[in-house]
Write a structure and sequence with these properties.
It is built from twelve helices and 16 strands. The chain is α/β, with parallel strands linked by helices. It has two domains: about 210 residues, Ribonuclease Z/Hydroxyacylglutathione hydrolase-like (Metallo-beta-lactamase, Chain A), CATH 3.60.15.10; about 90 residues, Arc Repressor Mutant, subunit A (Orthogonal Bundle). The strands form four sheets. Strands 1-2-5-6-7-8-9 form a seven-stranded mixed β-sheet, covered by helices on one side. The protein binds zinc ion. Zinc ion binds next to helix 2.
Length: about 350
């Protein structure tokens, strides 16, 4: 479905085959110079067909895409970028310079070693990733497989050969390895075709999340930073723990930053557009204040972050969560515990066996 926001600016709806959000909603700027996109979608067959069709409704072709802004390096936003660049040579990928490409790194390294490291980290925080919960969640697996198929095709076409073994090996190594052509800094201005946009660095959901502000029309493109009905996952990852990064603290500051923009319309990458963006930012801030208290109250004695996650309320009962969802819940709980430590309310204790537990100060 294509919706016109103002003449020359359109909102698309690209289906997501995995995850519960239903659609990614990229924005298209149509100009004399060609097309500019903000976000794309998963690199899956269904998503590609939908994008091609909807760009067609705007009398355009994928090859007309001159630049692609991507809010952050998650597959429902960046997944199709490689395919777009393959179809539209010269298309510039524009992202925030500080973004972290975990998705790519996973495939750069030995995947088995990466999985062992990740499992060891979860176990340190009380979650055993190796137990079979008998709860199915094929979402992540499905899109990874679909993107892998597409990647093989792109590589095969590029190489112009059909040596399957080499192609598969190439695909595994190149999957997710995509580098931005333009790396933005906070406050950078980027102009094209009568549009003058400003980069707003909004770390939290990811370290280099990009929102875009149009000061002339007072539009704010919010990516996943601000959504109309849900709050994005804000997780502490092992890399954050290593460098002492506090994603939730960053997220809260980024919400305030967006609330302070003079916005008349919030244009998110999923769900509905947001008429009162400052109000929505403040609602999400309030939600996390309550969540901090809830996490604090879930502590008793010395317990692991995974036990805290079991004790707080989620949108669905924790017992029904697949292991992937439990991993996400663990990261989310840890980002709250980290802020409680910084606020002097909670203490982090590393035990002799390398496990980490948390207690009230
Ligand atoms: Zn998303």
């Amino acid at each position: 479905m294509v919706t016109e926001i103002v003449p020359g600016l359109f909102r698309l709806s690209i289906p997501m085959t995995a995850g519960g959000l239903g659609w990614t909603t990229p924005y298209v700027f149509r100009g004399n110079d060609g097309l500019t996109l903000f976000d794309c979608g998963y690199g899956t067959r269904g998503a590609i067909e939908a994008l091609t069709e909807q760009i067609g409704e705007l009398d355009g072709k994928i090859a007309d895409i001159k630049r692609l802004f991507v809010s952050h390096a998650h597959p429902d936003h960046l997944g199709m970028a490689k395919w777009i660049k393959d179809q539209a040579p010269g298309c510039e990928l524009v992202m925030m310079g500080s973004e972290r490409f975990t998705y790519g790194q996973i495939h750069h390294r030995d995947p088995q070693q990466a999985e062992r490291d990740s499992n060891a980290w979860a176990l340190k925080h009380g979650l055993d990733m190796t137990i079979d919960l008998k709860i199915e969640d094929d979402g992540p697996r499905r899109w990874i497989n679909e993107e892998r198929e597409l990647d093989k095709e792109i590589e095969a076409r590029r190489r112009g050969n059909s040596d399957t073994a080499t192609t598969v090996e190439m695909a595994t190594r190149t999957l997710g390895r995509i580098e931005p052509d333009v790396r933005l800094h906070d406050g950078d201005e980027y102009s094209f075709d009568g549009w003058s946009l400003k980069a707003v660095w909004t770390p939290g959901h990811t370290p280099g999340h990009l929102c875009i502000y149009d000061p002339k029309r007072k539009f704010t493109f919010t990516g996943d930073h601000v959504l109309s009905r849900i709050t994005p996952n804000v997780s502490l990852a092992s890399e954050d723990e290593e460098i002492g990064r506090s994603p939730l603290r960053e997220f809260r500051a980024s919400l305030q930053k967006v609330a302070d923009l003079d916005s008349e319309l919030g244009l998110p990458a999923h769900q509905d557009t947001i008429a009162d963006l400052p109000k929505r930012c403040l609602e999400i801030l309030e939600h996390h204040d309550e969540r901090l208290d809830e996490v604090y109250n879930a502590l008793g004695g010395r317990i692991s972050a995974a036990e805290v996650a079991e004790n707080v309320e989620w949108s669905k009962p924790y017992e029904t969560f697949s292991i992937f969802k439990r991993r996400a819940a663990l990261g989310e709980t840890l980002s709250h515990l980290q802020v409680l430590v910084e606020d002097g309310r909670v203490r982090r204790v590393e035990l002799a066996d390398n496990r980490v537990v948390w207690e009230h100060v």
